[in-house]
Sequence to fold (276 residues):
Amino acid sequence: MSTFANLQVNSPSPFVYHVELDNPKKSNAINSDMWKAIGECFAHLHGNPDCRSIVLSGSGKNFCAGIDLMSMMSLGQELSQHEDVGRKGRVMEQKIRQYQDAISSIEHCVKPVIAAIHGACVGAGVDMITATDMRYCSSDAWMQVKEVEIGMAADVGTLQRLPKVVGSQSLARELCFTGRRMDSEEALKCGLVNRVVKTKEELLTLALETAKQIASLSPVAVQNTKKSIIYSLNRSNQEGLDHIREINCLSLQSEDFLKAVMAAATKGEPAEFAKL
Fold:
């Protein structure tokens, strides 16, 4: 079912999609084609009525080794075509925005995204997982904000999202300033991940079962919940309340609400919901 470069996309159960980074020879380092594919894939799933939840994982030994530095050589060649710093800057601005938009497409996708992290999760891998809604990992997983080690500041989401995810400016700054590794135990302790399991196989089972549970619920309710959470991140409580009130003026008239209430009241068969 995959039509995206260096991604394997399939649907292992009804309304659940599995997106797997597929560049295993380079530990799923993200090349130019993958940046484009990630944005296209999650934009597609955002509007796909057959998709209600998504698991994001990596093939091979590692989740993601970060950006593919070899692919950056093509950017250097593109920059060399210009002598003027202003024009070089315009090329860089467009490229960085493309990368930012690719990662943000995960957050902007209205379907809940669960990251299943094993092995190394470095640089752009951290950008990716902090844009997801939930994170599980295997015991061999480790995370590293590596950008400072290659002479740059992370610029596609980690600096903005990681402090909010872990709830500690101090810890986030330590990780980003030093580039040190964080193991799975510390990731669990600080709230970067929800659960740690022993193996990659257990990890995928856990992530897919959770995605299946989410997919069994009202897509109207789940997707509006994600919208409200994302909207409220950088706004006052009252703005968030105003936002969800406006949403629910329509949503509480949805057939999904009536079906779910009736199923709960009668304690009968679980409600089934139409595509959205």
Summary: The chain has eleven helices and nine strands. The beta strands are 7-13, 16-21, 53-58, 113-117, 120-122, 134-138, 142-144, 181-183, 195-197. Residues 4 and 37 are 5 Å apart (CA to CA).
